[in-house]
Structure formats: structure tokens, C-alpha cells
Amino acid sequence: MVPRRSFTIDTEKTTRTTYVLGTELTVNLNRCAPPQSKFFSIKCSPNVHYKITPQAKDGNAVPYPLTPNSVLIVTMDAVSKTANDSKLSVRYYGEKTEALGDALLHLTAVEISLDVDADRDSVVEKNNPNKGSWKWGPNGHGAILLVNCDSESTYKKTLDSEVDEISKVSDLQDMSKMILRTNGPAELPEGYKLTMHISQTTSENVRVFRPRTNVQKDNVLCSHKLLKLFLKDYIMVVGTDMLTQEVPYLGGKTELEFFVEGLHFPDKDFDGLITINLSLLEPCGKDFPETPVFTDKVVFHVSPWIMTPNTLKPVEVYVCSTNDNYSFLKSIKNLVEKCGSKLKICHEYMNRGDRWMQDELEFGYIDSPHHQFPVVLDSPRDGDLQDFPYESILGPDFGYVTRHALNEEVSSLDSFGNLEVSPPVTVNGKSYPLGRIIIGVAFPTATRGRNMTQVVQDFLWAQKVQEPIALYSDWLVVGHVDEFMTFVPAPDRKKFRLLLASPDAGYKVFKSLQNNGHGKAEMFPGLPEAISVNEILSDKKLQAENRYVQNCIDWNRDVLKKELGLDDEDIIDLPILFKVLEEKTHPRAVAYYPDMVNMIVLGDQLGIPKPFGPKVKGRCALEIEVCSLLEPLGLKCTFIDDLAPYHKLLGEVHCGSNVLREPSPFKWWNLEL
Amino acid sequence: MVPRRSFTIDTEKTTRTTYVLGTELTVNLNRCAPPQSKFFSIKCSPNVHYKITPQAKDGNAVPYPLTPNSVLIVTMDAVSKTANDSKLSVRYYGEKTEALGDALLHLTAVEISLDVDADRDSVVEKNNPNKGSWKWGPNGHGAILLVNCDSESTYKKTLDSEVDEISKVSDLQDMSKMILRTNGPAELPEGYKLTMHISQTTSENVRVFRPRTNVQKDNVLCSHKLLKLFLKDYIMVVGTDMLTQEVPYLGGKTELEFFVEGLHFPDKDFDGLITINLSLLEPCGKDFPETPVFTDKVVFHVSPWIMTPNTLKPVEVYVCSTNDNYSFLKSIKNLVEKCGSKLKICHEYMNRGDRWMQDELEFGYIDSPHHQFPVVLDSPRDGDLQDFPYESILGPDFGYVTRHALNEEVSSLDSFGNLEVSPPVTVNGKSYPLGRIIIGVAFPTATRGRNMTQVVQDFLWAQKVQEPIALYSDWLVVGHVDEFMTFVPAPDRKKFRLLLASPDAGYKVFKSLQNNGHGKAEMFPGLPEAISVNEILSDKKLQAENRYVQNCIDWNRDVLKKELGLDDEDIIDLPILFKVLEEKTHPRAVAYYPDMVNMIVLGDQLGIPKPFGPKVKGRCALEIEVCSLLEPLGLKCTFIDDLAPYHKLLGEVHCGSNVLREPSPFKWWNLEL
Fold first, then answer.
1. Number of Cβ pairs < 8 A linking chain A and chain B
2. The CATH fold of domain B4-110
3. Contact: B586, A445; criterion CB under 8 Å
4. So what's the pLDDT on residue B584?
5. Bridge partner residues of B259 (DSSP)
6. How many CA atoms lie within 13 A of A360 on its CB side?
7. How far is B278 from chain A (nearest CA, A)?
């Protein structure tokens, strides 16, 4: 709809106004008509056009009859060269067509467009008709903003979003461009101003900068030129505590470039949408405030934080070096070399003995048509690794975000071994091309239980593009979903398999061994805790515990089948037994032997906790079983000894590592939400 | 999709489980098969049915071949008479069809359905397939909940939603019914439980009650019977600090009635949706917690708070009695009698001289298929009338809601003369059958200005069904939208007209008077402030001020035309002049003579501030003009003298009154959102 503006003319003095191309001025002709006026006629400059409503019955009758609702609609088709260079006049006539008065209007036409990349091709096109709204999907529209959550410095760091100035010119690359295109006379008529403005709520979530000096005309002030400007040459236009500010009108045909940064991720109370307005203000005479006569607006959506499933290509593998994990580290190094990724070791001065790299942080990324970078989500867990994400990961083009628990107890379920993401799935026709986030919580029916903190849950749900699934993980002592499930790539079906820990599958292996005459073969062979297959199978208490564990996992299996649209053929049961520890309030489970599902997945290379199962002809029966399940999918199994430095501390390979992966090729804004 | 549950059977001992009608038990046959099993066969009771996947190639071959993915899908078609009265057994065979073992399963079938009025006909139907989700619109579904914001008592009042027990049995009428329908044996098998549960977030917004004793079977325990129960016979099942609780299984075919109350209105951080779950818990053996084996859920949407436009029938008119408004009160009383409404007078001991009844409160209502009642929104304004809404209006079936400003200054824009609602409109094809809320704020371009507090704005936007429009009212000293606009009913077009104050229309009247030789006629005739038409027209300062005021009103006119889809023909300009008061920071306007647009609208009766305009042949020219504009619409104009007790204190008839109206016949849940 064409923006319309009510305007009043006057027979007693000449009125002046500034007209913005593409709008309509509507003049109620009756309002200012001299008493006894019955007819009127119009004269105007050639670049001024008008319509009259209601249309006079005798369309060509001049003068026109004046009715109580006679409205003159004025448009112009070209910008003015000088102020007030176009004219329109209305002459009023009485009953006998005697002239009663003339209302003169002097017009200045300008073109004003606040522009963004609304079609998401990383070019700021001119006046996209959809720039003022957001629509998801491949046929959608709306510009995109990144939270400026990286730090241009690698030491003396601050999040760029926490400083209200531009710290380095490279910071501009993290921002979205916005261009004010104007065309018109060298100067606006006296008293007119351009002003950019945002709402109070928006001001908490965005900042807009512009170069302080910008006098080049008739061409774009391109980024590479801007980068040569000094930092002091950038000023904040709107943002925190600055809701509105005048912006210069440069005259002629000019483009003024702005840089826009997001300050916060979508969350419970922020839907991610940001509106920025630009208004032309008209003077109302001395002593009165100006009134806006034209407003253009643009809408941005802040990029959500996006997680990367195991099926995406690994880039860097993170592990801790501790005083007892030398051979483990070596195994990981070999594995990482095989798949061509980089290994990043967090040394002891930083980890202070906290080896649970999986639990302190989760890697994700943010994405826009012009730029993308990884962002680490720092867990509220805060073990001795707590400084690692901020101190060692945050940096130029590596963002950081965290959530702090408020009036909530942080539990083991807040570690990010309890935060995973599925590969892309389609569920009952609904597609999740970025997969679905998976977390573990207490059974909703439990009168008490541990949960992931509400602030982190709120954050995850608010990202919207990987709709989370809550599983039940509180049945485990440690309570992480990665203790009973993972995903591996596969060449067929849905391009992945869900691996689940399965006591039933475990017992099946042990029974087969017994049945085939290997009842005396020992679990943990050669180790102090060695125990025979027969002994394991005759332990009724262990059986009852594993029945309970299988119930818990089956409940999760049913949820995963439903929420990820999986068939039984998409799931592989890995033979893993658990045992239940007596806790004061609640019996909870840990893996009986190294929990093979807690593996690291690097392309087709799997680093699996070495289970130390009973040997038949010198080979571990559990390894053989797992290889027979996974190798047909083209996966390569490397069994890594994590017994002493991880398993005995209630974690495994996955808990002790983390993987930065390539972003998904799917663009989040193309989701149909 | 049929709920599926993974289940494991055992060849070493009989397993038992409880099956819920309408679900499927899926048994992985390979998991518990004895080693070397190659085939299996199934036997079962006549009410047990099964399917096998993958289907054996030779469909009728018995025994069936066992594959790694062989799954047995079990269903039942009738409830059990006694626990474990149905059986299924699986026999496993080796290569040469020798029997290797039998897995026995004993089944108890029950029917469980948590029911609500999901089709919105005020009857709680059985197991509506859509009960677990919410959809807006006439073809939508989902149950509805009222915020229990009235008070069953008229003295010693508390909001019912603030006490976690039922204060009077009449309180049950404000709640939505929910019924747990069960059918099965007299008792559940040992160790099984039913439990109702809600999330932490939901627990802040809902409470569920049930009668403590309820042993009637095979028929509904109807409300009228419940009402005879004593209050102590109701207990809270879930709600604040109570996320889950066991509910009784009554045995046989039974219905257990629950009563559900909402605690909060939709707001910035609450979308109004509430989910309540009911699970069947299965015992997992001594020492282990139960696991849910079946969960049913229902969804409610809390009724938004809905405002009533001037076009709805008035029920009660509220005004204050003060020591100086006797004749004003008498005029209002006459007017109210004409339109058949009731008059409610707030006496001086309560109003303490604060006469601005419009500003302290706004009437609205909440609505559900089973019940509706009015709800007063108490302004954060808090003048001397501040106790009136709670003390005098809140009561049985008259609800109360308020918002308190947090770290925000409360300004004159928080008075509810600055909160209005349009009649139903359709804008570019989008229909607003409940109209749109209208508030006044500062210009978005103003560097400083007064605004309505964010908490109230957030509340209004969150109701969703009357999407608000923000106008510019900060140009007025008092700053209320009712100083320059109102709506009146009309027989034609959109069934209403928007009335706008118009200095241009005012000057037109005065110029006509001058032109017709009445230049010496006096405004405020006979009063000390009397001033002639000629003097008014020659006041250049007044003209400039009114030019500014007209600009401000025109900006609002353009917004209203756009946001309400109005044509110029839907708008009537009332002849009103303003004057601008010198304020330190900002020039702001007040009406020059009684502001006729600030009228009370009671059906076709309009109570209009008497303007004291210049008289021609003994009749006020301004009254004549206004009557000539409004009477053709079938409206009856009564001019009420509010000069001393209201106008001189910067308010008029509308500011000094409030109208409780009938709710809209349109049901909010039928909106297409």
C-alpha cells in the first residue's frame, strides 16, 4: 500500500512541504476552502500529478465542484533540483464561479530509501518491497543479523557486543550492511531532518554504526574504502541508551552506509526480530517539535545459534592433557590424523585436571548471507575448565555465548554431554534439515529429579531452527544423554543410524558366549576386576538392574523414534551393561564396562571406548559384535583404552573430547517455520 | 500416530505389563531370543492381536523365520476384567525347528483418557483427537481456561487465583472441567499408578483441583452433585510447587472430574498455552523408580483480556461524585436513564476528590465456552481513586488484573483515557472482529518523551486478539488519545465513524461566522473568559499553535486510516481548537474550549462536553455544526456542561466517566491468528 500523508493547504499563505517519491499527499480541499466556496481548479508544475476524489461526475469539468469530502491526491515523478522548485495551486470559486481565493503549495521532491539485504544474496538491493517484514523459507524474505559475539582481540578480550564502539575495522565484517539511499537537491529545505530510530526494546538488542565523515556522492562508499578510515571515524547512531539520532542528508544522489550488529541471541523474551526506522522530520514552526512526514523501516532477524551433528565434517578435535592420559592422547592423535582434522590440546595449566571437554562447552555457529563463524556455548557447569571457552576459544571470528543459572541449582545435567543434536530428519512430513537438539532431563512424572537449568533450556528452545527433544537421562548417575545414545553416518536409509546402549544386546552376547562354551572367559581379562561370563550371567541383582536400565532406554527409544521419525531399522543396539549405584535418594546407573556408545565420531572414523570384553580366540567378543554391527555401514572402529583416566571417573571418550565441525550447507533462513 | 511402546519379553521368566487401549506394544523378538534361535511362533488370548514386521515372505509360514529386526506389534481390543487376564507367548525354535524356549507375557488392558472440551461446545467430550494441541479459528480446536481473577467474596477479598484452595464452591464455576475417564479391572495390577504432571513453567500458570472422595462408578460425577460437597473435600492435584501427584484409579468404567484454573494472563513471557499430562506408571521392581508407560496430554489456552468498543451495548456507567459536580452528575443520570443502563456512583469517601474515572481503570472481559465475566484492568496511574477497582469492583464474577511499573516512571500516558479500542474492522483483507486496541505514546523520533509503561504495553500486545496500534499523544499536556478521537456507531459503511478533533474544522466554523457577519459573537458568552470570533481569528499565535496541533492529529489520522483500513468518508472532523501551554521542555496542547470529541457514547446517545461556542440566533454555532455532522447517523447529541468541574481541570465528560459494556458476540477463539 502506498504511504499516504494528510496535508493541509491554506488560502492565506503559501505552504511548503517536502514530498517523498512513492508516497501520496492527500489534501482535504474542503478544510481550507474559503466560506461559500462551491468549485475549485488546480494548476501545477509538469512533474506534479494529481487525482481528485470523489471523481467529479463530469470528469472534464473545470472548475470541479467542491464537496465536503473532496480530496486532492498529489504525487511527483522526479526529485527536485532545488528546494521548493515545484508548485501546485488550488483556486476556489463561489456559486457564480467568481474566484474566492488561491491556496499555493511549494513542493520539494526527494527520494529516500533505507535498504538492507532483504533477498539474502549478500547484496544490499535498492528498496526491496519486502524489506519491512520477515518471512521464513526459500520463498521468504527479510535481512539477517549476526550477534557480534566474537572478539576482535585475542588477549584483553571483551565480546564485541559488549562495547558500544568499533574495536577494530575487521569488526565491521561481523555486521550487516544497511544503506540509506537518498536523491534530491543539495540540501533539504530548511528545518527538515533525517533521523534513525528504534524502540526501547529493540535498543537492548541492536547497535547501528556509521562513518562519521562521508561526503562522497553519486557512488557507493564501499567497504574497502571504509576499512581505510580510522576507528574514531565511526560513531554509534542508535543502540543502547540511544533510541534516535539525526543522520546526515548528503545531497544529490548518495548512499550512506551503516553497519548493524546484533547484541543478543533469541531467547524466551526476544523473538530475534529487529526493526530499524528512518524518518523525515518536517519543521512545524518555531517553538514546536518537528513531526515525521515519512518513515521507512527495515527488519532483521538475528541468526540463531546452530549445533552441528556427528554427520558433519570434523574440523578440530579438542581434548585435555592431564598427568594420567598420555596414551589416551596418543590414540586420539592417531585417530584425528586419520581423518585429516586438527587436534587442539587444552593443557593442564588451563584445565587444572578437569578433563571433561565435552561437558564444559558446545560448539555451534551463526550464519548470514555475508558471513558466518563458529560460536561456543559455555555451560553453566563451571568445573575447573570454566575459563577455557572464554580464554582460549573466543577470538576473532570465534564467538562466545553463555547462560548463567538464576536461583536454580546447577546439576550434572547441565554438562553438555547432555546436549546433542540429531542429523537432518523428516518427521511425519515435517522436515528438520538442521536436525533436532536433544537434551536429557528428569522424568516429568518424578516428584524430584535433576534437570537442565531453565535458562539453558529457554535458550535452546528459542533458537527455533533445531526444535529440541527432551529425553530422560536422570536415571544415570552422571545423567548425560551421551551415555546411552549417539549418531553415526550411514550410506543408506536416512544417511545415519542412531546407536543406543542396550543391556538386552549385552546379555545376548554373554549368553551366546556361555552357550558356545566360553562361560569361563573373563570380562576385564588380566585386570584385577576380571569376572567370568558365567558369573555375570548368574548375578540376579545385575539382571534386575539392567532390566530397569533397558526400561529407561526403551522409553527414550520410543521418544526418539517418534520425534525423529525413526524405524527400528534406523537404530542399532550396542551391547552395553550397566550397574546401579546405591544412592541415598535414588538408584542411578553407570556403565559396567567402558560405554562404547560414548564414542567420538570423525567422519567414518569412530573412536570407541575399549570395552575389555571376554576374549575368544584372542579377540574381544564385544569388539567383534560392535564391528559386525558398524563396519557394514563403511565405518572404521578404533577401540581406545580410556579405562583408567576416563571410565573409572565415570566418563569415556566422548565425555573427554569435543569436535568443532563444519557448518551445515543448509541455510537456516530457508527453513519453513 | 498411534503411541508405540518398546517392550522386552524374557524366556527365563513370565513378564507382565499393562496395556492401554489405542496403543501398540512393540517387542523386539531377537533381543530375548535364546542363542541359535532361527524361528518363532506366537499364541495368544482371543482379545490379543499381533502383527509381525518385517512380514515374513511366506506370510502363512508357521513358525516364522527370526531376523535381527523381527518385531512383534501387539494390540488389544477390550479392557480386562481382572489383572493379567490376557496372555501371549512366543516359542523360539532352532535350525531344525526344535523348541529352544518360551517367553510368556501376561497382559492387563485398560482404557485411559484425560478429556477436555477441545471442540469448545462446553461439553467435555471423550478422547478428542485434537485435545493435545491448540489451533485458532472456527475450524480450530483446543480447550479454554479462564484466569480465576475474580473473588468469591465481596469483603475480605483476595483474588481467587492467589489462594491455592477453593474458597467457595461457586469458585468451581470459574474453572474449566477436565475429566479422567478410565475403564478396566477393579484395581490396576500391583505397583501401577496414575499420575498427573505439569512442567515447572506451567506450574506458575495453572492449578488443578479434584474432589477428595469420589467413589461413584459407571456415571459422571456431575457438577451439581459436587457443589454439595464440602470445601475441604477438594484438594489441589497440581499447581504452584506441586508438579506431579498421584490420582486415584477408581476401577471399572469411571469418570473423575477435575477443575482447572488459570493463574496469569498471557504476557511477554507466557503465550497463554498450558499443557497438563496424565501418565500410567509401571513398577520396575523393588528399589527402582517407576517408569511411565503411557502419557495422555491436554492443552488449554488462557482467555485473553478483551476490551469493548463504544459500539457495544452499555451495561453500567461509572462516575465520581465530588463536592462540585452535582449538576454534571444530574446530566449524566438523565442520559443514562435514556439509554436504559445503570449508573454507578463512586462516592467521595472512596474517590477522595479524584474524578477521573476513565483514567484509573479499563473494563474488559474474559470468555470461554462455559463461562464469561468482566475483568477490570487497574492502571498503574494510582491517583486517589487507586483503591476503587480492587475495593469496589472486584467481586464474584467480576475479575481484576493490574500491572505494576518496574524501574519505569509512571506518566500521565499510563491513564486509561489513553487506552481505547476500535470497533471491528477489516484491514487489507485481515479481519479484526474484536477491533484493535489504541494507545498513545511519544513520537518514535522524539529524543525524550512520555510513554505508556512497558509492562502495560507488553500486557496489551500479549493478549493478541485486539492487536494494538500506537498513536502519538505526547503532544498533549495530558497526553491521552481520548482527547482527539473517539468512535460512534453508524448505520452504514463500517457501522461506525471515527471522530477526530480538528482545528481546521474549528477555524472553518469561525471563519464562516465572521463571513456571515457574526464576527462579534462571543465564545464563552456571558462568562468572564468571553472572546469574540474576530479576536480568535486575528490571533496569529493561536493559529500557529493549531497548525501544529492539526499536524499532530493528521499524523494520527494517517496511522488510523492505515491500521484500521479507513477511508476519509469513515472519519468525521469535529470543530475543536487547541492552545499550547508553555512547558519547560516541550510545548504541549490542551483544548481551547470543552473538547467535544471527549464524549461518552451510550448506544445512540452521545453525552458531549458543552462547547460554549458563539451564539447565532440564540443557538451555539459549534453545537449546531456537531449536530449537523452526527444526527444524520441517527445519533442523539446531549451537550453536558462540564466546564468548571472537568474542562478547567484539563478533562471532559469521557475522562470523568467509564462504561461497562456487554461482551462482543464474537468468540475470541474463532479468530484466525
1. 172
2. Immunoglobulin-like (2.60.40)
3. no
4. 64
5. B177, B209
6. 27
7. 9
Instruction: Please say whether the beta carbons of A621 and A522 come within 8 A.
Output: no
Nearest Cα neighbor of A112 from A22, A35, A204, A34 is A22
Task: Using DSSP bridges, classify how beta strands B244-247 and A273-282 pair: parallel, antiparallel or unpaired.
Answer: unpaired
CB of A513 within 8 A of CB of A581?
A: no
Q: Which of A284, A547, A573 sits opposite B285 (nearest CB)?
A: A547
- The residue that leads in pLDDT, B316 or A291, is B316
In the chain, the amino acid numbered B292 is P
Span B104-111, average pLDDT: 97
Q: How far is CA A166 from CA A6, A274, A582, B343, in A?
A: 41, 20, 56, 63
Are the beta carbons of A8 and B568 separated by less than 8 Å? no
The minimum CA-CA distance between B5 and chain A, rounded to whole Å, is 6
Pick the CATH number of B306-670 from 3.75.10.10, 3.40.50.2300, 3.50.30.30, 3.30.420.40: 3.75.10.10
List the single range of A318-322, B94-98, B357-361, B651-655 with lowest mean pLDDT: B94-98
Q: Write out chain B residues lying below 8 Å of A5, CB-based.
A: 554, 558
Is the interface score ipTM higher than 0.85?
yes
**Distance in Å, alpha carbon of B363 to nearest chain A alpha carbon:** 27
- Asked whether residue A229 carries a pLDDT value surpassing 90, the answer given is no
Identity of residue A79: V
Task: For chain A, report the end-to-end CA distance as a whole number of angstroms.
Answer: 26
Looking at per-residue confidence, does A12 or A376 come out higher? A376
Cβ separation A454–B195 shorter than 8 A: no
Chain A residues whose beta carbon lies within 8 Å of the beta carbon of residue B1: 428, 562
Q: Tell me if domain B117-302 and domain B306-670 are identical in fold.
A: no
Q: A269 to chain B: nearest residue by CA?
A: B269
The shortest C-alpha distance from A387 to chain B (Å) reads 31
Residue A292: closest CA among chain B residues belongs to which residue?
A: B445
> Which distant-in-sequence residues (6+ apart) come within 8 Å of B50 by Cβ?
B42, B44, B72, B73, B74, B75, B88
Contacts of A7 in chain B (CB under 8 A): 554
A131 vs A590: CA distance, rounded Å:
54
- What are the residue ranges spanned by the domains of chain B? 4-110, 117-302, 306-670
3-state secondary structure of A234: strand
Which of B53, B287, B288 is the best mutation test for A, with the most CBs of A within 10 A? B288
The residue-averaged pLDDT of A479-499 equals 98
Q: What is the CATH number assigned to the segment(s) B117-302? A: 2.60.40.1700
Q: Do A281 and B445 touch (CB under 8 A)?
A: yes
CB contact under 8 A, B512 and A197: no
Q: What is the pLDDT of residue A226?
A: 47
Average pLDDT of chain B to the nearest whole number = 93
Confidence (pLDDT) at B218: 36
pLDDT score for B418: 98
